Automatic annotation (TrEMBL):
Domain 4-vinyl reductase 4VR residue range list: 108-170
Protein name stated in the entry: V4R domain protein
Domain of life: Bacteria
Gene3D superfamilies noted in UniProt: Trafficking protein particle complex subunit 3
Biological source species: Saccharicrinis fermentans DSM 9555 = JCM 21142
Length: 171
């Protein structure tokens, strides 16, 4: 994806502690998926499947940049950074991350997410679902390294794989 400008910022998420003194910073996966999959359906009907995937990737990308710069320490060396990312995704009840391949010299990585928030348990459709996660990882790697990466989900719960596997390559 080409570099983009955007106005979304971390503070747009609001002061959750102030706004939700009783309910706090948590919700159900049903609530999250209800919004995502109804929105996805409307976008697909209005704009088509390919454009919808592109928008989810793009949204994930800016989310990844904002998440990385506000919730992670980009000054840490690679394995400590990945350990922090793993911890953050677990604490957010987003997914369980493990790194399957690291080639620092060629900037190529394979990451696996299990129990992924977006897709775990979805019906099998033979198409990958996690366009947002692809963009999210591209944004996180962009914010951490300063380089653009292409991220492709090669396995997904929705393709019958039970985990999501992402190949991450420098552009
Ligand atoms: Zn997936």
């Amino acid at each position: 994806m080409e570099p983009i400008s955007y106005s979304f910022k971390w503070s747009d998420l609001g002061d959750i502690e102030l706004g939700r003194p009783n309910l706090g910073n948590s919700t159900s996966v049903v609530t999250y998926r209800l919004m995502q999959y109804s929105l996805r359906n409307v976008l697909e009907m209005e704009l088509g499947k390919e454009a919808t995937q592109h928008f989810f990737y793009k949204a994930g990308y800016i989310a990844g940049i904002e998440f990385c710069t506000h919730a992670l320490d980009i000054k840490k060396e690679f394995y400590d950074f990945i350990a922090d990312l793993q911890k953050a995704l677990k604490e957010l009840n987003s997914s369980i991350l493990r790194i399957e391949k690291t080639d620092l010299e060629n900037q190529q990585f394979t990451l696996v997410l299990s129990e992924d928030l977006d897709c775990s348990g979805l019906p099998i459709t033979d198409a990958t679902t996690c366009d947002f996660d692809e963009g999210l990882l591209a944004g996180i790697f962009k914010a951490y390294t300063g380089n653009e990466f292409s991220v492709t989900e090669v396995d997904c719960w929705s393709t019958g794989a039970r985990v999501c596997r992402f190949e991450i390559n420098i552009k």
